[in-house]
Amino acid sequence: MSSLPPWLQQLLPILILLAAIALVIARLPKVELGHTEAFKRRRFFNWFPLGMTYAFLYMGRYNLNEATSALKGYTSNADFGTIFFWGTLTYGCSFLLNGPLTDKLGGRKTILISAAGSSVCNMLMGAVVYGVLTNGWQPPGGLVATLSFLYALNMYFQSFGAVSIVKVNASWFHVKERGQLGGVFGILISLGVYFAYDWSRFIAKAAPTWWVFFVPAAILALFVVLDFFVIRDTPGHTGHPDFDTADASSGESGPQLAPKDVFLKMIRNPVIVTILSIEFCSGFMRNAIMQWYPKFAKATGIGESFVAANWGMLLCVAGITGGMFAGLISDRVFDSRRGPVSAVLYAGMSLGAVASLFLLHSWMLGWAVIFMSLCVIGVHGMLSGTASMDFGGKKNAGLAVGIIDGAVYAGTALQSLLLGKILPSGEEAKAAANWSNWPIALVPLSFVGLLLATRVWNARPQSKAAPVAQVPAAASTAPQDSSRTGTQG
């Protein structure tokens, strides 16, 4: 492998892993739901470009980390925390508008809005950095304030991404297929993280810093064109029959409820409230790990270690593994229940968080945080990418995933503001001992997430022919009526 270009050396393990996963999935017994081969082919050409758009949205979101690191004396850790806080706060609040808007407009239109808007915002951020670095330009209010505003605007458009992908896929996948789809969702997140960290780092080393923003802007612009011609909201829009997906919208007739009524209905459902709380913890854990380990590694002088030097690639491999593990055991072992998988993965996160308390001075810390990343991406794929479809139903998937993803980014905003204030900067950041607040912050959230995940161990979506899902003391709901899962074509 030493003769291969560095970028290909990093990409090769990901390609090998994806090939191995494809082989394993191909050998597994199929869930037969009556889909034709023509339908499956068209479905692939629907979700694959949609999913890759989502992956590159991640690149246009988390490139901020590498960009602020490359800016060196222009921004500090606290400045990064401030910029990221305003972006994630905007993202978390945007579901109030964008969830219902996606249910009304359809996921195809909103993914186009998302990619186009994020492309423009990344171009503007790149232009600001270009002006500062080449001409000494001082933007209004200063660099941090200007990037905070533009990043918040970027994150508004970004917030359509997950909502759109779930909204579209909810009409194309049956409940019994969605665990594996949740694994695919985890793969897409992982690829996006790889693009955001390793590609952005490569760009920052090979070209001026502003290209860290310009490259994802150009890629997203290309996907706007591709998605316009390829993606459709439902099978019926491509000439294939629509079918009963057996989720919470199954059997529901009549006009679409007003967003306020749907929102109140969802937050009165104990299952959804519990999932919201779990995903709040997931948002805190995921970004407390992904955003701050590179900062820790660079500040303490271990930036050349294997984990730190290959952060994006290892996160991608871990996320793919965690996502597919979660998806496969959800459908194959736990009968399409998402709660047990989340509990298993949160147990792993809790172990990793406790271990990190004792590994702060050790090279093993990098592998502990990679393991925690495997777990948290698996949980996020199961809950934001899959449970949102199941319990929101295809009619209300936009608002459901908006609410759940909003909770994720509320947790993200909290960690960004908190860790930005309590973690060291400058000379203090060079000593690993001064970073002890970082693992301390991870432990309580991991245990709270584990406890909450056990509360939805038996939760399932209910069709309109069955009682409303509840979470009593045993944390279970009545089983799904499997006779109402008929499909066509």
Describe the structure.
With 489 residues, this protein is mostly helical. The protein has a single domain (48-243, 257-475), classed as Up-down Bundle (Growth Hormone, Chain: A), CATH 1.20.1250.20. The chain is 71% helix and 0% strand. It is built from 17 helices and no strands. The protein has helices at 6-27, 37-70, 77-105, 107-135, 143-158, 160-170, 178-206, 211-230, 259-267, 270-290, 293-300, 306-309, 311-332, 339-358, 364-392, 397-422, 437-454. Helix 7 (178-206) packs across helix 15 (364-392), helix 10 packs antiparallel against helix 17 (437-454) and helix 13 (311-332) packs across helix 15. Mean pLDDT is 80; it is low at 465-489.
Question: Which term fits the overall shape?
Answer: globular
The CATH topology, please?
Answer: Growth Hormone, Chain: A
H-E order: HHHHHHHHHHHHHHHHH
Broad CATH class: Mainly Alpha
Q: What proportion of the residues form beta strands (DSSP E)? A: under 5%
Helix content: over 70%
Termini Cα gap: 46 Å
Q: Counting H and I runs of at least 4 residues, what is the number of helices?
A: 17
Mean pLDDT, rounded to whole units?
A: 80
Unreliable residue stretches: 465-489
Named at the architecture level, the CATH assignment is Up-down Bundle
- Radius of gyration, whole Å: 22 Å
Task: Indicate how many domains the architecture comprises.
Answer: 1
Question: What would you call the structural class?
Answer: mainly alpha
CATH superfamily: MFS general substrate transporter like domains
Q: Tell me the total number of β-strands.
A: 0
